[in-house]
Amino acid sequence: MTTMTAEATAVAVRLESVTKAYGAVRALDDVTWTFPRGGFTAVMGPSGSGKSTFLHCASGLERPSTGAVRIGGTDLGRLGEAKLTRLRRERIGFVFQAFNLVPSMDVEQNITLPLRLGGTEPDPAWLDEVVRRVGLADRLRHRPAELSGGQQQRAAVARALITRPEVVFADEPTGALDPRTAREVLRLLREAADLTGQTVVLVTHDPLAAATADSVLFLSGGRIVDEVRDPSVAAVMNRWETL
Ligand SMILES: Nc1ncnc2c1ncn2[C@@H]1O[C@H](COP(=O)(O)OP(=O)(O)OP(=O)(O)O)[C@@H](O)[C@H]1O
């Protein structure tokens, strides 16, 4: 095992002068930010402000044009494609608006897929715990099409947690859900931070969702322009309106 400095272990994700250009568009413009381990951070900003690009670069789904990204003590820029893919599968959990479950697999197979892709078996006690948290114990043999949208997203959250990832990245995970179901999914992400010390980064348009985080980052024009800590819904809406 690699020895890490105390600083590296306290830092979950670090972006250092990250710029991402698509042709003439600077989707991210010199972004530097540190996500502390076990924190829950929301990212807000107008359409086109760079939220998804930020999440993709921070999670190793895309490589920055310039700058560096570290997950724990690992510099993603030093990893080749195979190692980067493995890091994403083993150390990061993803939740997307569109659930992205495999239609032909049942709920348990979907949840355990990241482990099986990595050639490992689920730890039965952890699988039970994750399934209990997301409330799908009586749905394990159902296929996604037999579930409600909220149940599908809860299965996707379970799939994101099954590898005990260091960081969970969620891109508009409540965008397709009704408000009550959205609250359940947010509670699961909050629990991931509070119960198991995972670092959660949530991209959202919803001030109610953002206010469940420890801190809200505001992006505009590819830059972080503000942070609101211990946010109330009113504080988030107020900052949003003046962006
Ligand atoms: N693959 C791409 N090719 C070209 N331009 C891109 C690409 N991805 C993003 N962009 C551009 O980069 C900018 C930021 O896009 P991004 O999707 O990160 O914003 P966003 O804040 O997530 O927007 P939204 O809230 O609408 O999803 C936009 O101008 C967008 O058009």
Model description:
This is ABC transporter ATP-binding protein. It comes from Actinomadura verrucosospora. InterPro entries: AAA+_ATPase, ABC_transporter-like_ATP-bd, ABC_transporter-like_CS, ABC_transpr_LolD-like, MacB-like_ATP-bd, P-loop_NTPase. Keywords: ATP-binding, Nucleotide-binding, Transport. The structure is a single chain. This protein is an alpha/beta fold. It has a single domain (6-241), classed as Rossmann fold (3-Layer(aba) Sandwich), CATH 3.40.50. It is 37% helix and 27% strand. A 6-stranded mixed beta sheet has the order 6-7-8-3-9-10, with helices on both faces. Helix 6 packs parallel to helix 7 (179-196). The longest helix has 18 residues, at 179-196. It is globular. The model has no long low-confidence stretch (mean pLDDT 93). The site of adenosine-5'-triphosphate has 11 residues, from strand 2 and helix 2.
Core attributes:
243 residues; alpha/beta; Rossmann fold; 4-stranded antiparallel beta sheet; 27% strand; globular; binds adenosine-5'-triphosphate; nucleotide-binding
Topology:
Elements: H1 6-10, E1 11-22, E2 25-36, E3 40-44, H2 51-58, E4 66-71, E5 74-75, H3 81-91, E6 92-96, H4 107-117, H5 124-134, H6 149-161, E7 167-171, H7 179-196, E8 199-203, H8 207-210, E9 215-220, E10 223-229, H9 233-241
Parallel strand pairs: 3-8, 3-9, 6-7, 7-8
Antiparallel strand pairs: 1-2, 1-4, 4-5, 9-10
Bound molecules: adenosine-5'-triphosphate.
Adenosine-5'-triphosphate is lined by residues 22, 25, 27, 45, 47-53.
